[in-house]
Amino acid sequence: MKTRIPIPIKKLLQDKQDEKLKKQQNNQSGPQSQDQIQEQAQDQNQSSQAQKSINISLNLKENIDYIKKTVGNSSDIVIREFQAGQNGEIKIAVIFTDGLTNSAELQDFVLNTLMFEIRNAELDSMVFDRSNLFNLIKTHSLPVSGISDINDFQKLFLNLLSGDSILFIDGCSQAISISLRYWADRGVEEPSSQTVVRGPKDGFTETLRKNTALVRRRIKDPNLWIDTQQIGTKTQTDVAIMYLKGVANDKTVAEVQSRLNQISIDAILESGYIEELIQDETYSPFPTVYNTERPDAVAGAILEGRIAIFVDGTPFVLVVPALFVHFLQASEDYYQRADIATLIRLLRYFSFFLALLTPSLFIAVTTFHQEMLPTQLLISLASQREGVPFPALVEALMMELTFEILREAGVRLPRAVGSSISIVGALVIGQAAVEAGIISASMVIIVSLTAISSFVSPNFNMSISVRILRFLFMLLAASFGLFGIILGLIVMVLHLNSLRSFGVPYLAPFAPFILKDQKDSIIRMPHWSLFSRPRLISQKNIKREDTPSPKPSN
Amino acid sequence: MKKIICLFLMFLLISSLLTACWSRKELNEIAIVTAIGIDKAKDGYLVSIQIVNPSEIAGKNATGRTEVIRFMKTGDTIFEAMRRLSTDVPRRIYVAHLRQVVFGEELAKGGIGKVLDVLSRHHEMRSDFFLTVAKGAKAYDILNVQTALEKNPATDAANTLETSEKVWAPTRPVTIDELITSIVSKGKEPILTGVHVYGNPESGSAFTNVQNVSPKTGLKIDTIGVFKSDKLIGWLNESDSKGFNYITDNIKATAVTFPCKDGKITIATTHSKTNVKGKIEKGKPKISINVTSDGNVGEVACKFDLSKPEKIKELNKKYQHSIKENIEAAIKKVQEDYQSDIFGFGEVIHRTDPKAWKHLQQNWDQEFAKLEVTVNVKAEIRRLGAITESFQKEIEE
What we know:
The complex is a heterodimer of chains A (554) and B (397). With 554 residues, chain A is an alpha+beta fold. Chain A is built from 17 helices and twelve strands. Chain A has a five-stranded antiparallel beta sheet with strand order 1-2-4-5-3, with helices on both faces. By secondary structure, chain B is of the alpha/beta class. Chain B has two domains: 25-235, no CATH class; 238-397, Nutrient germinant receptor protein C, domain 3 (GMP Synthetase, Chain A, domain 3, 2-Layer Sandwich). Chain B is built from 15 helices and 13 strands. In chain B, the strands form two sheets. In chain B, strands 1, 2, 3, 4, 5, 6, 7, 8 and 9 form a nine-stranded mixed beta sheet that branches. In chain B, helix 5 (113-121) packs across helix 8 and helix 10 (238-247) crosses helix 11. Chain A binds chain B through residues 6, 8-9, 11-12, 15, 366-368, 370-371, 375-376, 378-388, 391-392, 478-481, and chain B through 2-3, 6-7, 9-10, 13, 20-21, 23-28, 30, 32, 34, 52, 54-59, 94, 96-97, 99, 124, 126, 152, 155.
């Protein structure tokens, strides 16, 4: 008898053979090719270093020409040449990016000083030494706080294009970068995604410095360290990590830094880029990096020993490590009293499961386990289903899909027409579909319940993962009933257990179970009893406070 | 990566071979059976089922069609008949929501043991439905009546059974487990509550029947039927049925009426607890029944002075006596007429003296018939109600 091997398996076998062959080839030519790669890398390094190491020349004209050539005469690069000194012997040029510099201040404190006031200073006797001149101007004639020396064009362009003004002096091989950055930006506004009833209403903006300032204002501790670097070969986006030295785990800080250093990309336009590039697990519906628009949430996280990652150009700040419980905590939990905060947290956990499982449970019970329903309810549900042409799964999928479309449309629509969507959604789809007998009324209730439950989640990330999983659970429920749902839940919990966020088990403090950390996970104990930081996140400096529980002192 | 894709494709292909959804049934594809009636046919059984019409019972726009539909088919076995019913019923018969199983009296007299197998074997059947006997009627007649208050007659009957047990206690809802246990047990005989149709069963089927304030035809929960093994041998009357419930500690609340000087007094029993003890004396089994009962004065339709403590004591005595009489009458009736130990005295003896029971159980029926039973009632009246003294005196003055 001839054994027949299915095509996919054949392919698999072939692939394996191919791989083996390749490996062998690699082994044969291994050392050589590695050398080649190294050589290439070295070449690249050298070439990039070569680019970097173009130093500023003594000749002002050469420098200006080089800048003009490099930026292609871009119209927003303003080059102002003038001559200073009593006899106009000192050739000076100020270069800045229009729109990123406060030109009024530049006028007042740089141009004015150097063009007019310097004339009265009788500098000429000392002018002959050019290096002396450079220091003299820097120390005597620039009433600006943010000043730094620049030796090469690489740094020059970074500063220039970040909004600094560059001061060239003819005959000096250094330039001065004057920080007079100013650009039109959004002020500090109330965050749009995570609003609170009680609590601070300020939110992050698109400017990194403003954002770090918002957190610095909350934690006035010298141990609050900020470590900034540029990521993105083209965008040179400022990315700052902020942590509380001595509270944050050093290993985690090092891990975050090393992951950030590994990024080699041309552009970082939003913190989402960073999130995807440094997160632990890509193929997971669950987020392992937390993001927030709220400075108080970031401050709280930093005080717990977590690390914040600020990215210039976005109000969304990343926080790592991010555990499952963090996504179900809102900053308001800590501002309201402990009892109501606990109650609301319980409600949040409950609605997490509602959002995840309601449609699938409904499908499972009504198509597989009718015996679980009370008779009256069964009859009532059955009467609603009379004449509905689709199976419960199709019904649920249709409604869920409609809802997802509605939600997406609602997000993208201009505000002015936004309200019409809700009318169309609520009336036309909900009411009409039931009256037309396409959808049973109970399904509308189920989908609505699911929808409102999914909005309870304080973090958008988690509700997205719930949205994805909900459909999987619905399919499981439709094919295997409750058995399928339990199976899905088991797989989900297994997966959650396998996740880690920067070395911390994702389900902590439930798995591994940490008794001490239960005080701020599902329930929120009163502040005087939140005596220690989460154990797995901050392993040094655990003690938070020593406040006794408030009692009348009689 | 290629490997992963290949494995994934294989997984998809294999999963398409898996036959899922095999037990899937949409709500509008099932016929919800709420009552089954089983009668004796020439050979085999005549099975009738009552199916609800959901949109008529719970729908917003009912069309005026009947709320329940009855179908009947005969078969050599009940299962066969049930399957044969599929030629009549357009939907899949679904019995998980069964509320009531009715046996025809003829079948009950002939023995229900064989019938019970399918009821406990069928995986869809839950064990929470009540079993009843159609008193003096065919089971299919019971299933042929529209009820006015509850749209679903099976629910109507089951609820009536439960309510009457709770407040008046002449009935006893029996579930399948209970029934089978007492059939199998040697020291206890089964009972089932009777249901009967008053009026003409045929006209009870018509919708016009329930359009009357007092429907001409309807269902009535009757008293308790006594079985010996699996055969119905007779019926208790209402007071004996209550007595039965006293003995088996199944009184949640009831009313006890006894005569006084020129009228009657009713005590509402609010709490009752029965303790049955057995012992063997000189080889003779003896049973003692201890009833503790609390009650409130429910109605005083005579001149009786409730304001004096000694009068209350007198009332207590009467109350006790009345319960005692009731119990003794029930025992006497069962001992004399049926010789069937429905009270479970045999089990009590079995528990107290297993060795003696070994000898006794062979002819327990005879032993039961001459069993010596002593009844002690400790009953007390706790509250007098909203008024203390009856105004009956003033009426005559």
